[in-house]
Design a protein that fits this description.
Helix 2 runs antiparallel to helix 3. The strands form two sheets. The chain has a three-stranded antiparallel beta sheet. Strands 2-6-3 form a three-stranded mixed beta sheet, with no helix packed on it. About 60% of the residues lie in helices and about 15% in strands. It is built from three helices and six strands, in the order αααββββββ.
């Protein structure tokens, strides 16, 4: 019986052996990669470690960028709020002068003195706004420019040389640091 098992195994083994013995010689071409399986495992482990490091760096970079974006948005909001604060602080002196002028108008009947005081307050307001970069636009007797002017109406010009020119200004236009912040509303000669 043992002999039969050996024969069966030898028969199957022989068939298997013939299947596996095709490239059994380790020095045969194409079998060199089978000799270094440990090196491939080290390379795979190294690549996995490098991939994990890159993922970690990526996540840290994304978190850092998200923090940067939040911080700059917060700073922008604070900066815009503070810009308004600086203008208002500079106008508080004018407001104080207006309060004093109002109190003086209630107690005085001298219209010349009241008129002079109001003009002083207006001049102080204009100077304060000019210091902040506000500049009035000169429009009257200038050529009509669609970039600076909004035409309210057209009227016949008194002289031919005033055709296409601004004859009257209904509302002043203003620049803030050389940028137009309000167009002038004007009457144009035709």
């Amino acid at each position: 019986m043992m002999e039969e098992k050996d024969t069966r195994n030898n028969g199957a083994g022989a068939a298997q052996a013939t299947d596996f013995n095709i490239n059994a010689d380790e020095n045969a071409a194409g079998t060199t990669h089978l000799n270094d399986p440990v090196e491939n495992d080290d390379q795979v482990a190294q690549l996995k470690e490098d991939l994990q490091d890159q993922k970690d760096k990526y996540l840290r970079l994304m978190a850092e960028f998200d923090n940067f974006r939040r911080r700059t948005a917060k700073e922008r909001l604070e900066e815009s709020q503070m810009a308004g604060k600086n203008v208002i602080i500079s106008l508080l002196d004018v407001l104080d002068d207006m309060d004093r002028a109002e109190k003086q108008m209630k107690n005085s009947n001298d219209t010349e003195q009241i008129k002079e005081g109001v003009l002083l307050v207006f001049n102080k307001l204009r100077n304060t706004l000019q210091q902040k970069g506000l500049k009035a636009m000169d429009s009257v007797q200038q050529d009509f420019d669609v970039e600076k002017h909004d035409a309210i109406t057209e009227i016949p010009s008194p002289t031919p040389d005033q055709t296409g020119k601004v004859l009257d200004e209904v509302q002043k236009g203003y620049y803030l640091n050389d940028k137009i912040i309000r167009h002038a509303k004007v009457v144009v000669g035709k």
